[in-house]
């Protein structure tokens, strides 16, 4: 065996940049063999599921929204829907539309942030959004204005853009005023046109060749692009009800990460959630301009290149503006902000589509409405194992390269997932043995 | 009982993307942080300022520096308030952008954006008003608000008074 075949190389990216939260990459190569690939999440666990125990269920939305400052609606919406399922209530149809609108706002601000400030720099060999802004000031400025519109929508419906406070079990604490919603129409019309322009700008990018036979998983509805409700669809298997999520998906601890990783039964396989999965599974329900845009920029299914996730986010931004505009123009104010209910004990689940992918919650409450049990599975947890699998697939192409190149390309691959590391460290099981 | 009796108390007026709309305030004060621990310092200062009733100022409680971009256009002056880690608890720094000393301060950040990074990006895009002032209070570490030192509380009060004097002009 030659020396090069036995030489061990350790490639480390100690701090992943332009991702939310704190994580690292550790790769060990022996010759041409990949010995170890670890996405190391070292951000401290945050114990939200334990924190929720004993809390009144009215507080759950406020608490879970603090898991993430970029996707608080995903946590709030999923939690209130699970609690509504326990209480046996359904919000009024107009309130359901307001919630769908609210989620559009979150998709806009999250996708646009990731596209322009975190991911697009990679395609222009820029180290930061500041460098990108030097070369493309109009495009970055456009992106920030698009994000601003998303934030404003969340302020109108949620009380504030970060950790909104208005979502309640049964509806909202306060309905928006008609004039507040009407004032958003002009912004959404502008945003729809500009988001199409942004997508076309991104459609001119060059993408590394990298095709992975993912199992895509996402919520799906027959008649509209699934965000806040649906069944759990898969590119490999028949769709399942949300109630059956835990029969097919589970989380495991791995020694190198404070965040859990998800697997799929029965083969402990990895799977992919997020915009690329949604586009693949729900392309037929995209709104008309979003679908035209997808075709124009080359993201129509099948697409299994994670680097093209930036195009999927761009199309979903168009969708969010188009869908949001349609809701704003046709909206009728509901007669009440909340459905009343009598508190009862029970257990219930919910799943929605966070900007980064499928998110699942389970709660159990007692007869006084206090939380006895909480389980939260964010999208980044579900994608972690797939990220490591992708890296193992990528590395053979890079083995002959120097360590800096390997580290750079691996980090760029991680960024395609828009990982939210703070979200994924929400939980750690604690076992105490006393002797 | 829901934690917040008035869920909309923190909405601030700000510029509208629609160019036909006009901005009602010429100065913007943004406190960066959250409601908890040392993160609350910036917010507490802004809340003190708001009570002073100084006219023609928009107040915002922002969660992260990226919110600067939502609040900085069509104003003549921007004031940012935040905390940083330091050994001299309660000490107030008043810095005028651009100032290299900002980079040396120990910030927390999200999505890779701290105050200097957000301001650099805003500068690159020509989005900042002519006057950008950053008010920073040193604190020694993360502590719940009821554990804040006397020096830190005095520093917060001092900062609000200093900012108030400057805003009154």
Walkthrough of the structure:
The complex is a heterodimer of chains A (435) and B (169). Chain A has 15 helices and twelve strands. Chain A has 435 residues and is α+β, with helices and mostly antiparallel strands. In chain A, the strands form five sheets. Chain A has a three-stranded antiparallel beta sheet. Chain B is 30% helix and 21% strand. In chain B, helix 1 packs across helix 5. The interface between A and B is large, with 43 and 32 residues.
Task: Compose a concise summary of this entry.
The complex is a heterodimer of chains A (435) and B (169). Chain A has 435 residues and is of the alpha+beta class.
Which blocks of ≥5 consecutive residues of chain B have pLDDT under 50? 1-22
Summed over residues and divided by their number, the pLDDT of chain B gives a mean of: 79
Which overall shape of chain B is indicated by the principal axes computed on the Cα atoms?
globular
Number of helices of chain B: 5
* Shape descriptor of chain A: globular
Number of strands of chain A: 12
CA distance, first residue to last residue of chain B: 42 Å
- Output mean pLDDT of chain A: 89
Biggest sheet details of chain B: 5 strands, mixed
Low-confidence stretches of chain A: 425-435
Helix residue percentage of chain B:
25-40%
Strands of the widest sheet of chain B, in order across it, are: 2-1-3-5-4
The string of secondary-structure elements of chain B, in order, is EHEHEEHHEH
Kindly provide the radius of gyration of chain B, computed on alpha-carbon positions and rounded to a whole number of angstroms: 15 Å
Rg of chain A is 22 Å
Work out the helix count of chain A: 15
Strand content of chain B: 15-25%
| Spatial strand sequence of the major β-sheet of chain A | 1-2-3
Backbone structural class of chain B: alpha/beta
Order of helices and strands of chain A: HEEEHHHHHHEEHEEHEEHHHEEEHHH
Helix content of chain A: 40-55%
